[in-house]
Amino acid sequence: MKAGERLQGIVIRASAGNYTVFHQGHEVLCTLRGNLKKDLIMTESASRAPRVVQAKRKRLTNPVAVGDTVWFHFTTAHQGVITEVEPRRSAVVRFIPRTKEVQVIVANIDLLLVVFSVLEPRLDPWQLDRFLVAAYANGLTPIIVANKCDLPIEPQTEQCLQVYAQCGYEVIRVSATRGDNIDRLRERLRGQIAAVCGPSGVGKSSILNALQPGLGLKVGQVGETTHKGRHTTTLAQLFRLGEDSWIADTPGMRNFELWAVDAETIWEAFPEIRPYLGECRFPDCQHDTEPDCAVKEAVAQGIIDRRRYESALAMAKQAQGED
Ligand SMILES: Nc1nc2c(ncn2[C@@H]2O[C@H](COP(=O)(O)OP(=O)(O)OP(=O)(O)O)[C@@H](O)[C@H]2O)c(=O)[nH]1
Ligand SMILES: [Mg+2]
Ligand SMILES: [Zn+2]
């Protein structure tokens, strides 16, 4: 290795100004070049920033995030300094109300595994819809992973999963503890960078441990009384699932906020509703109380699931209230 040689890698961990960069099978602990922060704010507009960031022109707090492809050079035998960041293909972002800034949780994700459990805690379709809208707004392809399929599925949950499949979502039923469909999921992730999201306690870390035995991620216990689960995972990081598959386990992401997602984007995010948008009598139809609404007609005919429609309407109303 020549001193000062410019090398490329992927950021797999980030904490307090230290970045672990994966390069040719090795982990290199890096810091950031001093003026990188300033440079990045200028180049951010040139990259394909997520829709939500563009919408509100918020400043990103972290110039380098987990998932970024970076250029670095060695400063000692095992340490380096990051000098450049490649433009991002996508980003999962979160808004920090206190500082009014946007933080990139993970960058360059292709797939978003939206993990829910069928029981303990029971799948909440309203919450699932919010994750799916967030995936759409962030430009990510969602896969619904229904975990804990070793537990009995209640009829309402079964029906719910079928609705999502009929809407065109990819739904994979797994059991992290029993191993059902874990091979299928691993195959689906080949060659991709995926992130895992979902409420606390649904088994995100357990799924990662099942996908990659030996990973040894800490797994929490679901509270006996609340069934809410605790936030066991606090730090975003990428795990290698093989030659060219990466997966990110993210902090609880319970508050996968829909800030800055406008009502129009929310309606569009529902694939079964999308074909009816623009077909209503009024071009600015809110699909609420207006007459001759194509969306409501499709609901009345049973083509669009009523609960999904109500979910979209509630989110759209909330988004308008926040404007
Ligand atoms: N029955 C059953 N239990 C599971 C399964 N997967 C995980 N669990 C249990 O669910 C609990 C929560 O699992 P975790 O993997 O820690 O959940 P998590 O989603 O990573 O939680 P956070 O890190 O808090 O967001 C643990 O007690 C696991 O043993 C499964 O497939 N079946
Ligand atoms: Mg976890
Ligand atoms: Zn309408």
Report a brief summary of the structure:
This protein is α/β, with parallel strands linked by helices and 323 residues long. It has 9 helices and 13 strands.
Describe the protein's architecture and organization:
By secondary structure, the protein is of the alpha/beta class. The protein has three domains: 7-91, Beta Barrel (OB fold (Dihydrolipoamide Acetyltransferase, E2P)), CATH 2.40.50.140; 111-249, Rossmann fold, CATH 3.40.50.300; 263-321, Ribonucleotide Reductase Protein R1, domain 1 (Orthogonal Bundle). Helices cover 26% and strands 24% of the residues. Helix 3 (125-137) crosses helix 9. The protein binds guanosine-5'-triphosphate, magnesium ion (MG) and zinc ion. Residues 280, 285, 287, 290, 293-295 line the site of zinc ion. The site of zinc ion (ZN) has 7 residues, from helix 8.
Kindly state the percentage of residues in helix: 25-40%
Terminal residue distance: 54 Å
Give the ordered list of helices and strands.
Answer: EEEHHEEEEEHEHEHEHEEHHH
CATH structural architecture of the largest domain: 3-Layer(aba) Sandwich
Radius of gyration, in angstroms, nearest whole number: 21 Å
CATH homologous superfamily descriptor of the largest domain: P-loop containing nucleotide triphosphate hydrolases
> Uncertain segments of ≥5 residues (pLDDT<50)?
41-49, 52-56, 223-231
The bound ligands are:
guanosine-5'-triphosphate, magnesium ion, zinc ion
Topology:
Layout: E1 7-15, E2 18-23, E3 26-32, H1 36-44, H2 51-56, E4 69-74, E5 79-85, E6 91-96, E7 101-107, E8 111-117, H3 125-137, E9 141-147, H4 155-166, E10 170-173, H5 182-188, E11 193-197, H6 204-211, E12 237-240, E13 246-249, H7 263-268, H8 294-300, H9 306-321
Parallel strand pairs: 3-5, 8-9, 8-11, 9-10, 11-13
Antiparallel strand pairs: 1-2, 1-4, 2-3, 4-5, 6-7, 12-13
Helix pairs in contact: 3-9
Bound molecules: guanosine-5'-triphosphate, magnesium ion and zinc ion.
Residues 147-148, 150-151, 175-177, 200-206, 219-222, 229-233, 252 line the site of guanosine-5'-triphosphate.
